[in-house]
Amino acid sequence: MDYLAWRGDLDFGDCPLNEVDALILCQLSYLKLDGLVGPDFAKKRLTLAKLARAFEAAPDYEERSNMGAVINPLSPELLKEAGKSRRFGTLAVSAFINKIDELNDEQFSAVTFTCGKEWNFIAYRGTDDSIVGWKEDCQLAYMDSVPAQLDALAYFCAAAEALKGKFYLGGHSKGGNLALYSAAKAEAKLQKRILTIYDNDGPGFPENFFSSPGYRAVAGKLRTFVPRLSIVGMLFSNGGNYVTVENELKDMVMQHDPFSWQTGPRSFIECDKLGDESQFVGRTLNEWFRTLSVDEKKVFVESVFQVLEGSNAKTNFELTKNWFESLVGMKKTLDALPKSSRETMRKNIQLLFKIVADEFKRKLSADMPRLGMPL
To answer: What residues have CB less than 8 Å from 275, skipping those under 6 apart?
Structure first.
């Protein structure tokens, strides 16, 4: 919001798209644009200014403005201010897709912003408030490709066929993962049309992803940003190349929220390094993932989300709003799980605690000499 006040009067001809612009467009992808932006690329498109007015005038404005339990409630206000600005107001908006497929455990959404004949920006939505979206995130730990990744690639291919010019690909959280996956898996002729890939605190990939020819072809176009205390961006392997952004919040989990990232008039305010707490959590969780077999990961994830589904909640908002009823339903589902599934959950959680304890001891042993204390 500060950046819009500082730079909103400059169009992209005056000042080319930068990392803060990219994050704003990625955050706008979380908005409920169903019925306001069509699913097609080639048909008549509305400007962001018109979209902002239509969103505010929609009869279901209050429902659309409910961002759930995990997405910042300022997002509709961001759309309003961006729409009024010279910088963003004239962008054409098209091809809004929002897909929730509980049967195939998929949550996918994307929208495209076009700046005249200059460029197109595909913004992939990160994990929204849906339970199925969080389940698909966890499946990244053991599946080669999750459904949202395949749809993200198909979306880019369709956009490249329908639209002229160059492309930016970007996303926040899982959206960043989808942007990089789409770029790395695209054909060489499409990769050449990519200007930059913006991965904003997105979860990573298996280590072999970064040695693939597709990744190597686009690696020079990738820009990865994480907050100083990042959790999501440290999951799995991220290739080790990222910019650390200063954050106004002390809460580690909440630093994932883009509205807390510190920005100047042209770029983010960077930190010297990732916080120690973030490194600790990243090492701990990734060691846990590496220790478990593929089958153990799958059983664990399926069991956990089977318990969550016992709450009958479809979103995190519903889960927390009716927390007592949710707990009762989850307890019944947990008790009904096969003994083998419950045993796998117990062992996996015990293993995680052991890895945390071992990592803590290792860190303590490393810090004691530095502090002048005996081991």
So the answer is: 228, 229, 252
Q: What is the pTM of this model?
A: 0.86
Over residues 86-113, the pLDDT tens digits come to: 999 999 999 999 998 888 888 999 999 9
Average pLDDT, integer, range 259-273 = 92
Bridge partners, 294 (sequence order):
none
